[in-house]
Amino acid sequence: MSWFKRFRLASPYWLAQKGIIGMNHRNVQLIARHNPRFLFPNVDNKYFSKRLCTEHGIAVPKLLAVCRLQGHIAELKEFLADKEQFVIKPAQGSGGKGILVIVGRRGEDYVKPNGKAITHEELCRHVSNTLSGLHSLGGKPDAALIEDLIHFTDEFKQFTFEGVPDIRVIVYKGYPVMAMTRLSTSSSDGKANLHQGAVGVGIDMATGRALRAVQKGRPVTHHPDTKADLSQLNVPHWEELLLLAAQGYEVSKLGYLGVDIVLDRHRGPMLLELNARPGLAIQVANGQGLLPRLKFVDGAPKNLTPEQRVTKSLEYFRQVSPFVDVANNTNEPVQTAAL
After folding, report:
1. What is the pLDDT of residue 333?
2. What does DSSP assign to residue 114?
3. E strands, 189-309, where?
4. 8 A C-beta contact, residue 262 and residue 152
5. Order of strands, edge to edge, in the sheet holding 199-203?
6. What is the largest CA-CA distance in the chain?
7. How many CA atoms lie within 13 Å of 44's alpha carbon, on the beta-carbon side?
8. Of residues 190 and 299, more confidently modeled
9. For the chain, is the Cβ count within 10 Å smaller at the N or the C terminus?
10. Could you tell me which of 87, 122, 104, 95 has the C-alpha nearest to residue 188?
11. Residue 82 CB partners (closer than 8 Å, separation 6+)
12. Which residues are CB-contacts of 11 (< 8 A; sequence separation ≥ 6)?
């Protein structure tokens, strides 16, 4: 591709034509306008978010314990003695930092998803660093949450490596408007975080099927570790998942929101995390801009229930889905949506 063509494709005019929004638009028009700052603690702190979800009857991973003080670390050995699998995460962490996943035991050591073992002393050091704020937003003193390990649905087994995949849904004024699934890789150390090397797969909002995939901003067609064809990815429980995302609006009261959802093998969709400042890489994963979808919501009815908002969203996206033949009212592809 010539230098001129590359420049044209990345020009502000071209991006605007595609409905791509940038950081300034996100920060000023979406976050500042629709997300009151006094509500941020409810989503920035995972413990507060979990409590709010429980109050609203929304399924979340089971909380086993909260470690708040350095003095609590001395109690960990006894508390974890009978626990084979669990996750330790900072209550105010971001970007997947500070999350320690344990999938088994090897004697007195703990085994991570990559098969490496860590000692109890190393685990305690990790918790101590978490409490000191090493992984928290702004470096503030934090708490360490100990949660049940998610056993993700079998449909995702071939699409992820040494980690739990999740689905990020952007919710605007209570309407789900864009989604992607984040698949862990060896380079992301088993974490579903795009900045650390996870694969992002854009998801068709009408059907839950894969549109395209990227890793570190570059298009990919197959998972780099499992070699699975990413075009075959199809998110199960799709409408139930969208409803869960829409309910995140009632929980958080935020107008522009990222809702992270995991699919547990036994419990189905569960809300993992709420994000008041969701990033824009989801547009790259989808190959589409957010702006037309935001305009749709601006013109959509207000004061609807979560179920009604999901119905309205699905009606809109079925008109533009490459997988839905609107004329014949079928879910058969009307064109190839190749990755």
Report:
1. 42
2. T
3. 199-203, 210-215, 218-220, 256-264, 268-275
4. yes
5. 218-220, 210-215, 199-203, 175-183, 166-172, 256-264, 268-275
6. 65
7. 14
8. 299
9. N
10. 95
11. none
12. none
Pick the closest to residue 265 from 171, 177, 167, 149 (CA basis): 149
- The closest of 292, 279, 288 to 175, measured between CA atoms, is 292
| C-alpha span between 36 and 288 (Å, rounded) | 27
Spatial neighbors of 3 by CB under 8 A, at least 6 apart, are none
Which tokens hold the place of 72? 């609590």
Question: What does the pLDDT look like over 107-143, one tens digit per residue?
Answer: 999 999 888 999 999 999 999 999 999 998 778 899 9
Confidence check: pLDDT of 26 > 90 = yes
- Measured from the Cβ of residue 275, the count of other Cβ atoms closer than 10 Å reads 20
Q: How far apart are CA 289 and CA 139, in angstroms?
A: 33
The pair of structure tokens assigned to 45 is: 């702190």
How far is 242 from 151, CA to CA, in rounded Å?
Answer: 20
Residue pair 187/209 in contact (Cβ under 8 Å)? The answer is: no
* Whether residue 5 has pLDDT greater than 60: no
Helices (H), the chain: 3-9, 12-17, 23-25, 33-34, 40-44, 46-55, 76-80, 120-131, 238-252, 281-286, 291-298, 306-318
Place of tokens 């908002």: 309
